[in-house]
Amino acid sequence: MKLIKGVKILLVDDEPHILQFLEMGLVNEGYEVKTASDGIAAIETAEKFAPHVIILDVMMPELDGFEVCKRIKETSEHIAVIMLTAKDEVRDRVKGLTLGADDYLVKPFSFDELLARIGARLRNQFPDLLGEVVHGPFRIDDRRKEIIYMDAPLTLSPTEYELLKFLVLNHGIVLSKPMILDRVWSYDFGGEENIVEVYIRSLRDKLNDKEHRLIRTLRGAGYRMDLL
């Protein structure tokens, strides 16, 4: 992803050394950063700072991350929330996502992974900030609703465009059929999950991905875009 100026990130954690480390790294990447060390301060700072992304720790004094996420999403749905948790438990992840979190990271995590997660959220929720985005052989221009692959524009239906964009922007991440349906077809889609297979097959044909090296199928898990 290109270095972006003007993107605002709020860091929320009660561990000073984590705040300092992340703030230094993100400022170096070109982001505008504010910090908060507890839940109440996080909500107050979010109201004044209006961040694009909030990196939100779960375990904090005053208000925990779940409650902070819930309150922020009630008034600012457009803000992307990435939750940090020391517990690699499904119920914690499900609770955070149910309350409106857009992604999560389990401590300890690498800074490069955090950057990738932030980038994915910006590409999905604030494409106008990025304009044209390049990933491997793909160039996505969301303003023109165009995807260029290997320097050639692809002929895509609106749904194919949204599906391929979702796969590319989340490359390297396993995406389940329910997740794809929710993000591409919307939550109220009343059809069958098999529709995803039909569109994946069409994209593979248009990408000449006969050996499934680009769009990989992980049985029982979903699909993963691997950029060559």
Highest CATH level, the class of the largest domain? Alpha Beta
Secondary-structure arrangement, i.e. CATH architecture of the largest domain: 3-Layer(aba) Sandwich
**Topology-level CATH name of the largest domain:** Rossmann fold
Radius of gyration: 18 Å
Protein name: DNA-binding response regulator
Organism: Paenibacillus baekrokdamisoli
GO molecular function: phosphorelay response regulator activity; transcription cis-regulatory region binding
InterPro entries: CheY-like_superfamily, OmpR/PhoB-type_DNA-bd, Sig_transdc_resp-reg_C-effctor, Sig_transdc_resp-reg_receiver, WalR-like, WH-like_DNA-bd_sf
What does this structure look like?
There is one protein chain. This protein has 228 residues and is an alpha/beta fold. The protein has 2 domains: 8-128, 3-Layer(aba) Sandwich (Rossmann fold); 131-225, Arc Repressor Mutant, subunit A. The chain has helices at residues 16-28, 39-49, 65-75, 90-98, 111-125, 127-130, 158-169, 177-185, 194-206, and strands spanning 8-12, 32-36, 53-57, 80-85, 103-106, 132-135, 138-141, 146-149, 152-153, 215-218, 222-225. The strands form 3 sheets. The chain has a 5-stranded parallel sheet with strand order 2-1-3-4-5, sandwiched between helices. A 4-stranded antiparallel sheet has the order 6-7-8-9, covered by helices on one side. α2 (39-49) runs parallel beside α3 (65-75), α7 packs across α8 and α7 packs across α9. The two termini are 16 Å apart. Keywords: DNA-binding, Phosphoprotein, Transcription, Transcription regulation, Two-component regulatory system. GO terms for molecular function: phosphorelay response regulator activity; transcription cis-regulatory region binding. It holds the Pfam family Trans_reg_C. One of its GO terms (cellular component) is cytosol. It comes from Paenibacillus baekrokdamisoli.
